[in-house]
Specification:
InterPro entries: DUF3605. Pfam families: DUF3605. This protein has one domain. It contains five helices and two strands; from the N terminus they run ααααββα. By secondary structure, it is mainly alpha-helical. The protein is globular, with a radius of gyration of 18 Å. The two termini are 34 Å apart. A two-stranded antiparallel ribbon has the order 1-2. Helices cover 34% and strands 6% of the residues.
Length: 174
């Protein structure tokens, strides 16, 4: 993918944010990785749009995204097919989003209904911070205004994390 003199891709496969453009204009040496304290605040405020990747990783991610979109139609299609190995139900529509066969309607109750993966394209986080993603076949309830999880959904995630992912666990956030 050609880079303009500003260091930003001339035809990125997704809309670049102002943060992306700023990151692309710097070198890895000039980049400030987000700290644990910053990450906790970002997540608590559901302000995920400020997460950023290392400049070199962002350039590779843009290139990979373009290639993946060409091969699979979208990055989510790639994730479902190659990483999760989940098949969408015929009842899925663009309006409903993908639907999957589930073993148990209770979120996190059956291991076949979720997967835990390390993020293939992690954000630019301080050393020692790992980014895992828990993929769930069913949707958790969210608040319509912000898209953030409801208190009930947060409790489900908290219970799952405590009981399945990392017990006892210090220094995690979601």
């Amino acid at each position: 993918m050609p880079l303009e003199t500003t260091g930003t891709p001339s035809s990125a496969p997704f809309a670049l944010t102002a943060i992306d453009r700023d990151v692309l204009a710097m070198s890895d040496d000039d980049f400030h990785p987000q700290t644990w304290e910053e990450l906790k605040q970002i997540i608590a405020e559901n302000n995920l749009s400020v997460l950023k990747r290392w400049p070199s990783d962002l350039k590779r991610y843009i290139k990979w995204s373009a290639e993946t979109k060409k091969a699979y139609g979208s990055v989510p299609n790639f994730v479902r097919k190659e990483r999760l190995k989940w098949v969408t139900l015929p009842s899925s529509t663009p309006e409903s989003g993908p639907k999957f066969a589930i073993k148990n309607p209770v979120p996190f109750a059956d291991e076949a209904d979720y997967k835990i993966l390390v993020n293939d394209w992690p954000y630019g986080l301080a050393s020692g911070i790992r980014h895992i993603i828990v993929w769930l076949k069913m949707r958790l309830e969210s608040e319509p205004t912000r898209g953030d999880m409801t208190p009930e959904s947060r409790q489900l995630v908290e219970d799952f994390h405590t009981n399945q992912v990392c017990e006892p666990c210090q220094g995690f956030t979601w």
